[in-house]
UniProtKB/TrEMBL annotation, chain A:
Matching InterPro entries: Aromatic_CoA_ox/epox (IPR052703), Ferritin-like (IPR012347), Ferritin-like_SF (IPR009078), PaaA_PaaC (IPR007814), PaaC (IPR011882)
Name listed for the protein in its UniProt record: Phenylacetate-CoA oxygenase subunit PaaI
Domain of life of the source: Bacteria
Stored Pfam families: PaaA_PaaC
TrEMBL record, chain B:
Stored Pfam families: FeS_assembly_P, Zn_ribbon_PaaD
Designated name of the protein: Phenylacetic acid degradation protein
Cited SUPFAM superfamilies: Fe-S cluster assembly (FSCA) domain-like
Ranges where the MIP18 family-like domain occurs: 12-72
Alphabetical list of InterPro entries matching this protein: Fe-S_Maturation_MIP18 (IPR052339), FSCA_dom_sf (IPR034904), MIP18-like (IPR002744), PaaD-like (IPR011883), Zn_ribbon_PaaD (IPR056572)
Domain PaaD zinc beta ribbon, chain residue ranges per copy: 112-163
Organism: Mesonia mobilis
Amino acid sequence: MNKDSLIKYILGIADNSLILGQRLGELTGHGPTLEVDIAMTNISLDLFGQVRSYFQYAAQLSEDDKTEDDFAFLRTEREYVNVLLVEQPNRDFGYTIARQFLFDHFHFLLLNEMQNSKDETLVAIAKKSLKEVSYHRRFSSDWVKRLGDGTEESKRKIQLAINDLWRFTEELFQKTEADLEAIKAGIGVETDKIKGKYLENVSAVLEEATLQKPKLEFFQEGGKKGIHSEHMGYLLSDMQYMQRTYPGMKW
Amino acid sequence: MIEEKVHISEELEPILKQVSDPEIPVLSIIDLGVVRSAEFNNGIAEIKITPTYSGCPAMDVIGDDIKAALLEAGYKAKVDLILSPAWSTDWITEEGRQALEDYGIAAPLEASADKKALLGETQVVKCTNCKSKNTQMVSQFGSTACKALFKCNDCQEPFDYFKCLI
C-alpha cells in the first residue's frame, strides 16, 4: 500500500490513544482518591508512550520533514481521526470509567490482532502495547464491577454512563478507506473479526457488574472522518496551547 | 520465559554497568535488562536499548547517561531505542532482583503468581520490610509505570512491587 494511506491508517489508531491520554491527563491531581489518580495518569502515560511510537513511525514514512510533534500538536481539528468515544469529557468518575472500559476492550482486541500484521513496526508496537493494555482493561473492568455492584448511587451513575456512551461503540469498528486498503494489504486489522468478541467480553463484565447492556438502534459516528463533537475543540485548545503560542518551541 | 540473546561487548559492559535507571538507582541498566546490544561499529559504540514501558520517561535520561558514561571512557556512542522484542521482567538478572529487594521494591513474581497477586486472589508478594506474606495490593498502578502499590498487613509498611511483564 502507498505511504500516504499507511500514515492515515497509523493515525487512525494513534489518535485514539492520544486523545484518550489527554483526557486522562486532565485528571492529574483531580482523581477521586490518590491511588485512582495515579492509576489514571499511569494509563495516560502508557497511551502517550504508545502514541510516540506510532507518530515516530508516521514521521519516518512521511515525505516532508515532519516530526512526531507535528502530528501531535500542529494538526487542525478536522485532521484528527480519533473515534468520538475517546474525546468525551470526564463528567464524573463513572463516566470516565465507562469510557475507559468501552475503549480498553476494543483496544486490547485490536492490538491482539495487530500482532499478525505484515508491517513489522506495527507488530512491534502491538506486542509492546498489549502488555500495558492488559493492565488497563483489568483496571477499568474491575471498576465497572465495583461501581455496578456497589451502592445504589454508584450503580445508577455507571449505568447512566454506559447508556450514554454506548452510542459511540459502533464507530470503533467502522472502516475508513485507509483502513480498507490496510486490511487488503495484510497490514490492517479487520475489525469485523473482533466485533463479536468485543460484545461478548463487554457483556460478560456488565452482567457480572449487575448492569444492563443498552439496546440501541441508533449509533453516532464522525470522528474517524474528522467530524468531531463540540468537546474536541476545547480539548485541542488546551493540548496545543504551548505549540500555538510559541511555535516551534522545544523543552 | 522469553529467551533472547544479548550481545554486549566485554569492553563496554563494565561501563554500562555504571549506568542505572534514574528511578531505581540501585539497579544497573544491564541488570534491568534494557540493554539489548552494545557493539563497536567503525569505532563507534552502538548501543540498543528497549523501554520497560512505552511511556517510560526514564528512557531519554538513560540514553543521555549512556552517552555521557561512554564519552568519559573515551568512546563515541550512538544510542538507539528498539521496541522488538518487547521487554520482559524475565530479563532482570538475579543480581538485579536482589538489588530491587534490598532497595525496598518487591521483585516480580512469575507470571501466573503475578496475575493472582494483582487480582488479589492470593497473597504471595512478600513485604520488603518484614518479609511477611500477609500483604495486600493497594493499587495496580504505583509510583512509576512499572510498579504496583502494596501494603503489608503485619508491619503496616507500604511498598512498591515491580509488575511482571512477560
